[in-house]
Queue: 2 jobs
Job 1
Amino acid sequence: MKRTYIATFVILAALFIGAVLLPGQRTEITGTISSGEKPTIAVADMHGTGAAEQYMDVFNKTLWDELAYSGQIKLAPKTSYPLQLPQQANDFKPPVMFSDWTRPPVSANYLAFGYAGVQDNQILLFGNFYNIGQPNVQSAQVIANRYYGALSSDGARKVAREFAADILRQLGIASLSGTKIFFVSDRTAKALGDAEIWSMDYDGSNQRQLTRYGTSSREPAVSADGKLFAFRTQVRGPAWNIRIHTTDTIRNQPFFNPVSSVIQTPEFTPDGKHILFVESIDGWAQLVMADIDGGNLHRISNVKAIETSPRVNPKTGNDLLFISGRSGHQQLWRMNLDGTDREMLTSGVGDVANPSWSPDGHHIAFCWTRGYEPGNFNIFIMDIADKVPIQLTSNSGRNENPWWAPDGVHLVFSSMRGRVTQIYSMLADGTSIRQLTTQGNNTQPVWAKGIE
Amino acid sequence: MRMNTRTLSAAVFAATLFIAAAGCKKKVAAAPPPPPAPKVEAPPPPPPKAQPPRIDTFAAEPGSIERGQSSTLRWSVANATTMSIDQGVGAVQANGTRQVNPGNSTTYTLTARGAGGMDTRSVTVTVNAPPPPPPPPAAPKPTISSAEILSREAQDIYFDYDMSDLRADAVRAATANAELLKRIFGQDSRFTVVIEGNCDERGSAEYNLGLGDRRATALKDFYVQQGLPADRIKTISYGKEKPVCTDANEACYQKNRHDHMAPGQ
């Protein structure tokens, strides 16, 4: 893996020295899913020698799915490809070179190709990625790497994911590889209402139980550096507490909780120095803020209305989204951390819940019952500049808890279809929906960068 | 054989007489023989003397009982013609057993009579008073009984959708609850109660935690208005996370929109 990165950096450096900006490469990711020009990529099916061949169907499908799932490229359909597929650099010969791929019907900007062999009882993939707008192999070559994996379907998937991640990285597209989704699951609950905090990879693999309190532990929040997660849990008393754990060794960090009939929705500030959460003050759930250990507690809302779900702008660290009933129905609001510049972002109808910021702070996601019966939430996004809500889900159960992925173009959310709630991911235009969980009920996903 | 001996004796006697007669003929006649000695008869044996009655054993097993229990009398008598035990037992055989249930300590006397006299022996069955009854069980600790009273008598308080004020039926139930709490608090100075606020599933999880808090607080405020001490009434909101049912219909929604009271810890 390290070798792969080094090789990649060398190529990147060479590209930048030549001041070549890849066509279609974007610096602004969010909000360009349904508009703007996407690079077109052709992905030639690859074959393997000997024992590798039996795993190449899995490899080809995984590579295609991973690239498609990024949502930020256009994949040229395989039925349009030439009959002779290239496997290595010297398969391209003048005068034809890349023209079979650049001309209609393929009309690709880039081409992925290669082949696999077996070395030391491992799959060895020679993966190539060319910018075929260039005149020759030397200038076209963006990636020419070796990828190793176990001689198995899992190994083929791993190799395909690594190759796809490298391709996306070269195009300036953030990979979700290494990111973690924290969520709440009742799959081990012994009593109705009990739940624990879990984590999984971006594609639903590697699901892992993080807490074992045997009570109700919910509402995970992850610090910007990925090292801490906070959550609400029930303790003896009975009472609610906020607890903070490290994400690596699951150590409990000290946190001084107020005594309150409600403590909920913890949120780290981007600098990791403070925590916002909700406690009941005089019978009203109110927003409060404290140091990371619970000290210096002070309220940041003071109104006879239920207010929940403080979410601090990850870019500025100065303003926050929150849900408030101060105008009547639960609506989405924004204000500065000092309480100034308060504004309602939704129209006042229906109920709103679960605000989430995109990583660049330009977009927000939330769920809303606008146009539906009470409780029938759907996922909406909004550009904070124009405040026009865009509905992403409809007629597919009760959809809540949207959370932006670190790549800024995916969302994870929970959906109750029938009487069971599961976690799904999708692109921020509502397409490419993938179900990530299957066991028990799973809710409140939070998509975090991995620990760097 | 006896006949033969008598025959021989008669012959010897006759021969003796012949010899003596022949000798007299020759000589002068001899003196007459002495009369035979009178035959002495042995006196008749005395009539056998009668043996006196004898009581070999007379025992009570066990000799000491609790009131209500029984003891077994066991006896063995020799040389007696009639045997009886007093205290209502009456005539008995020479060997036997009899179960007795005396209400108090009692001495039983066995009398044996016969031609040779009589014999008596007594045995006492001691009846102990039963042990005193165990002391009545200690009164259960007030907290347990208070918790039981609460769970038996306290009524859940139900709410309208998205509301936290007490309806008319809720006020009636809460008034009865307040009287109940006064009684419990009065008899149990350490008892505290927790009001658990709950919601139906329709709002968001986060909002429902706030709404459940409103509902618990509304009931606590009512109790405090009724004169109950605020510091002995705690509140917690479970929002929609501890439902009593999970059906998606109004009947179930109404069951879940409620305050429940539980003993504090």
Job 2
Amino acid sequence: MAEVDSSSTTTTTTTTSTTEQQNGLNRIKMGDTIILNINNGDNYKVVKLVQGLQSHVVGKCKKVDLLQLIGKPFYSTYQVLPNGTMERTNQKDIEKELTNLIQTTIDADNSKLTNLNTTQKLTEDDIAKMKQKGSSASEIIKALIENSDSFHTKTEYSQMKYLKKKMGRHSTVVKILKPTSKNLIESYYTKDPKKICNIRFDTLGQLLTLGNVKAGSNILVVDSSMGLVTGSVNERMNGDGVVLSAYLGKGPSLSIVQNFGFSPEVEQCIIPFDFSSINKLNLKEPESSKDLKAINYLKQGVDSLIIVSKYSPLSLILSCLPYLKPSGSFVIFSLYKQQLLECNQHLSTNKLAVNLTINEIWMREQQVLPKRTHPMMSMDGASGFLLSGIKVKSLTHDEKLNKQQEQQKPSAMKIDQAEIEEEEKDEKENEKGEEQPLKRKREDVDGDDDKQ
Amino acid sequence: MLKSKKIIESGDRVIVYFSKDKMSLIDIKEGQVFNSKFGSFKHNRLIGSEYGSKVNSEDGKGFVHLLHLTPELWSCNLQLRTQILFNTDISTILFNLEVKNGSKVVESGTGSGSLSTSFIRTLAPKGHLYTFEFHEERVKQAQRDFGANGFTDYVTVTHRNVIQNGFKLDDQQNMIGHIDAVFLDLPSPWDAIDHAAQVMREGGMLCSFSPCIEQVQATCLKLDESDFEGKRRKKEKRKDNIKTVEVLIRNYDVRLQEEEILNLYNPYEPNPNAIQTDNNNTNNGDNNNNNNTENTSTNSDNGSTTTVATKQPYKKKRWEKGSSQPFTLGPMEGERKMRQLAKPESEERGHTGYLTFARFMPQEK
């Protein structure tokens, strides 16, 4: 019981210390990174608030000083006025304003709708003039309705749809998002999914749980998602653990990590290093001093391995696997099932891993409205594929000893064994030089004996 | 479950893994024996083994692998008391609730503790899970499980009907206004939303899991009336700012399957010799035709990899060896070979539930 008591006091102390932080947690401070979600649409903007920040173009407004947001809460919504000031509003107020404009007509239906552009009497020039005078969006929309012949003949739903469309065109509503993994993936996935390896939010979520990401772990991440995966792993561990982020190419490309706005203590958990160091390690080449820290962690072994890369995953997983501790989880993302099948085949045949699973996710969003609930008309069908598994040691202690004896004096009884060995020789002869030592090293680290 | 160890000791909880659908959770204790279809294993022999290692049974019946317990393996091995959530839903919930080390999370109900375990893995050691369950026996079992898994410091299990009594705990005053995420798996989640709002911090996330769409509708209406908002849709800019999704997993059954290929004449290939009977051949159309198929297949049968290797840049792998067998079908000839093929599992879940997400943003006063 005494143990339980002491533990409960420790919990309370940690809670009080986080309480102070929590009060300011949702407020925007100088130095924070914010995501602007403009008009609820495809348009996202990531901005870091620094002293002397230049004014930004936000939607229709050319000059908006974003520093006026300091002290405001994250996830608040603003109407951007033509003069560049931001007025706090919320979605519900906007809805209310629009609802007031609806003219309910009994018996309205869409039977008289035409595709001609003659129903609107207001011209582009008129609207431009109104904007110059500084009319608000709702004033413009009011004018549009007054000059429309067909508006009042539409159904209520159609009217609302029309208003929302016009609202989006003539006003700028901005929501300020916090740069969390969830919001960052949303903004990058909508803007340019290629940049982040086409990884979708639900797949990233799977990746983090299947990779058993938890505080206190050392995790090896092979990342070609501009740092999104590295950052998400680091966000979960929140300063407790090590993320070894291997980059492929000239230098680390972790620009998204900067956008997470980690504190220095949390950010220092990420150790970027050149993937070729792993290759050099496998080849037993002299170590470069540059990545010594990462190499030391690798030699100790990592708890989990996550691979999100545009390169074919087989060679990557094989070169990383020696550094994953036995019973450690690994997960590989690929857009293509075939690449993962290849990995699965290699890992299962060579008995390097168990619980191998290839899966994909089917995700569908629902529109939920009274009497109008249905799945969304368009859905994203490409979640990509995940191969997950647990690394094991392929031989028991006894088998290892037996194998050593067999190798010393191969008997006629052991044809299979001899054959396998012979084939391995052939394989090695056929292989290119770079793969050969890699394989040897893998067995070294696993603790299995070299077959030669 | 939270610490990773190298060597198995007495008192550890270990997964004994035979295959994907056959594994057991055992508590290692000196002097005990674990008996199964795959043989018997003395615990004394398991103690001192490395995690991830392979162990043969005493009676030579088979072998197993010894694995660390993870929340994912726990979900597959726990004693079911209720319908539980599995990894696909769990991952989506954790990600959208933005749970991380340090988060304070409220969950109701606890059920069998499958989701709770994942919550704790992710929020420990700096965070805390407050989980509520109205069924007393489940509360006790959950407490036992959390204790055995080493979670005591990170979780508070409370026996309570939250619809009536809410989430406030008398001895945890500082949880009010500081809860980062709330998860509801209740028959009437809409009745718990006001309670949730009382403990949540500004900008916190709420998730409700419901199997029925009617429940989702009522929940969304209630959320919309309360101080919750979500992301409005790209195309449908209607009064709907709360996100509801369903996620289903599609697992692939990957097997080494026998594939039968008939050596037929290909009328579309200008070179009549160029029928590929061997997958390994990618660029050598002159290798096989109907006349010399027998030769090639015997080659690979004998394992004379050297001759094959000179012709083929692709190297023979161990699992392909000897797998190519000639066969006849009436007057036709063909080849039988093993290949890894994948198909979706025939038995899959068609539906688990709808996940509704919303963010708590109280109006400025």
